[in-house]
Design brief:
The complex is a heterodimer of chains A (118) and B (316). The N and C termini of chain A lie far apart (67 Å). Chain A is an alpha+beta fold and 118 residues long. Chain A has 2 helices and 3 strands; from the N terminus they run ββαβα. Chain A has a domain of 72 residues: Ubiquitin-like (UB roll), CATH 3.10.20. The longest helix of chain A is centred in the middle third of the chain and has 12 residues. Chain A has a 3-stranded antiparallel beta sheet, covered by helices on one side. Chain B is an all-alpha fold. Helix content of chain B is 68%, strand content 2%. A two-stranded antiparallel ribbon of chain B has the order 1-2. The chains are: A alpha+beta (118), B mainly alpha (316). At the A-B interface, strand 2 and helix 1 of A face helix 2, helix 4, helix 5, helix 7 and helix 13 of B.
Chain lengths: 118, 316
């Protein structure tokens, strides 16, 4: 059962690339994104990616590839195809509207000097 | 938007030191240049393990052995960071590796020289990793985000490599007359190849100018080579060893060392595949890949079996 049915084969490429140079039918292990919590109290942060057959192996490899020098206390691995990313060309539509909402910032509100610590 | 406008926006971002990320629009030639450079860099890390692996089992003490093992393991890691960075540009790992095995892609020529004695391991760490660091530090500021991030990680880890190499050289240079002779012999053989790692002279370097405009490259080959020379000559003197260059002299006016012309015929000859170990290196990589094939397939089959089992348990 080493040969898998072509139709069942999951797409192995990173999603949403605008351009792909080569197409390959060879069977790479799926790609996983690695996130590391550097110490308790901080959030997990993207460190890089790697190929692994499954989640368990991805964790083991992430340990060897990305945490050889005490970089973390916790690891997350997520198969890359499960990540949905915003399109860079939508950047303005998505993030511009926040720019003119200055009333969302505390400095928008003028208060008398007598009011302390607010 | 027209290609011309996209290109203008792209160059403006680069000029303003805004990093380019995988999904951003980029000119085809920029993508191709990066794929070529990053994958060759990755191949160099992977092939670079071979000359040193030769000495892991022959290291003179347990301390030296664990350090060398850790260094070689780091190089595997660095290769993997870089392959991943190349993949963000839309190439598949297998195709990249195939290009190495077919000879289509190059790797740093330095790894086609043999490691004859333990002193070579010292000389590699000190000179080869030293030259690599000189090349890599400016790459941390490369305009392409994933490459820049990979290089920051690599550079952080690499400084231990150079220090472990120099520490071996120090021990040899201060050892028995025979050890001292081995240290000098290793320097004699690695000195010029290390200086050639910075690539051809600026006037001969085919990709330089465009790469500078794209801020992939920050300094010219000759600039980096000069910096390396100025830094390394005093380190060689501190070892009490001789720089194997009869024309080496310090120019008081410029404050820089001057050296002999490098033997570019030798350089191109090794690049073209006629170095001492070119065939041996590629054969070793091919064999490793082919012999690992059943492991890759078995791991995939096992992962699928587990997945099916999980699905079956869920369904029942």
């Amino acid at each position: 059962m080493l040969k898998r049915n072509k139709k069942e084969e999951k797409p192995r490429k990173r999603p949403n690339h605008e351009k792909t140079i080569t197409m390959s039918n060879k069977k790479n292990w799926p790609l996983w994104e690695v996130f590391i919590r550097s110490k308790a109290g901080l959030s997990h942060r993207h460190a890089g990616s790697l190929h692994a057959a499954d989640a368990e192996m991805a964790l083991e490899m992430a340990r060897d590839v990305y945490t050889r020098r005490n970089e973390g206390v916790s690891l997350w691995v997520v198969e890359s195809i499960h990540i949905t990313a915003s399109d860079p060309s939508d950047k303005d539509a998505l993030f511009e509207p926040a720019n003119d909402k200055i009333y969302r910032h505390p400095t928008f509100y003028d208060l008398p000097d007598e009011v302390k610590h607010m | 938007m027209a290609e011309k406008d996209l290109e203008k926006i792209f160059q403006e971002k680069v000029d303003q030191e805004i990093k380019i990320e995988p999904k951003d629009w980029m000119p085809d030639a920029y993508r191709k240049t990066l794929i070529r450079q990053i994958s060759q860099h990755a191949h160099s890390e992977i092939v670079g393990m071979l000359p040193e692996a030769n000495w892991i089992t022959r290291a003179p003490s347990l301390k030296r052995k664990v350090a060398l093992l850790a260094k070689v393991q780091d190089e595997a890691g660095h290769g993997l960071y870089l392959y991943s960075a190349a993949e963000t540009l839309g190439v598949e790992r297998d195709d990249t590796i195939e290009d190495l095995h077919s000879g289509k892609a190059k790797y740093s020529s330095i790894f086609n020289y043999p490691t004859l004695t333990w002193a070579d391991i010292g000389a590699i760490g000190w000179l080869v990793d030293g030259a690599a660091i000189m090349n890599q530090v400016p790459l941390c500021r490369c305009s392409y985000g994933p490459y820049s991030r990979a290089m920051i990680r690599v550079c952080k880890e690499e400084s231990f490599h150079q220090r472990q190499g120099y520490s071996i050289m120090l021990a040899m240079a201060n050892g028995t007359p025979e050890q001292k002779r081995m240290a000098q012999d290793a320097i004699n053989r690695w000195w010029f190849p290390a200086l050639m790692m910075f690539g051809p002279h600026d006037t001969e370097s085919s990709h330089s100018e465009q790469s500078m405009n794209w801020k992939i490259k920050r300094f010219s080959n000759d600039e980096l080579r000069q910096r390396f020379l100025d830094m390394t000559v005093p380190q060689c003197e501190l070892l009490g060893c001789e720089v194997p260059d009869p024309n080496l002299k310090f120019n008081e006016e410029t404050g820089h060392y001057e050296m002999s012309q490098l033997d570019w015929d030798e350089f191109w000859n090794v690049v073209k595949g006629n170095g001492k170990c070119n065939r041996q290196r590629i054969r070793a990589r091919r064999e490793a890949y082919e012999r690992g094939e059943w492991v890759r397939e078995a791991a995939m089959a096992y992962a699928e079996k587990k997945q099916k089992r999980r699905e079956a348990t869920k369904a029942s």
